[in-house]
Amino acid sequence: MSVTIRIVSNDTELKEIAELASEIWHECFVDIISEGQIDYMVGMFQSYNAMTRQIINEDYSYYAVRENDELCGYIGVKPEKDKRLFLSKLYLRKDKRGKGIASLMLKNVFDTAREYGNTEVYLTVNKHNDHAIAVYKKIGFKVIEETVKDIGCGYVMDDYIMSFAL
Question: What region holds the N-acetyltransferase domain (predicted)?
């Protein structure tokens, strides 16, 4: 197994990630939120246009994760002024889980955070995403806050904020 994780540097790759995002969201969140909310959130936060806006206006960086040259996951991070790195997105295709790829992805996130001089990585996770919560806790993330955020069109993000001290 050959896994590469590298920063996205062109529109073609970002479009490929946006397509993968839709695929992953529709397989992972169908038992947690409605199909309508999945479509809405993919459009608002995971589409090519949304990710382009995040890169240009919000200082996000995206990383493509490939196994044997096949795109299988992606990471989105945003450094913040308070020595924290926001892990906005860490997604891996279902058929690639359990192979150690997610661990490599998190190592990349932690290394990136250290390069930025951050002392903490934090993320948001849906309160009903039991598998992801268990994985993050096993790694050492701790729930530090609960949040409910109105994202428009009658939808909310009902999340835990989890933190990992570097």
Answer: 3-166
CATH class of 3-165: alpha beta
Kindly state the tokens that stand for 15.
């479009």
Q: Is 117 exposed, middle or buried (0-12, 13-18, 19+ CB in 10 A)?
A: exposed
Element (H, E) at 78: strand 70-79
Contact 158, 129 (CB under 8 A): no
State whether residue 104 is helix, strand or coil. helix
**What residues have CB less than 8 Å from 29, skipping those under 6 apart?**
38, 126, 129
pLDDT by residue for the chain (166 residues), tens digit each? 799 999 999 999 999 999 999 999 999 899 999 999 999 999 999 999 999 999 999 999 999 999 999 999 999 999 998 999 999 999 999 999 999 999 999 999 999 999 999 999 999 999 999 999 999 999 999 999 999 999 999 999 999 999 999 9
DSSP 14: H
Torsion over CA: 60, 63, 64, 65 (sign): negative
Integer-rounded Cα radius of gyration of the chain: 15
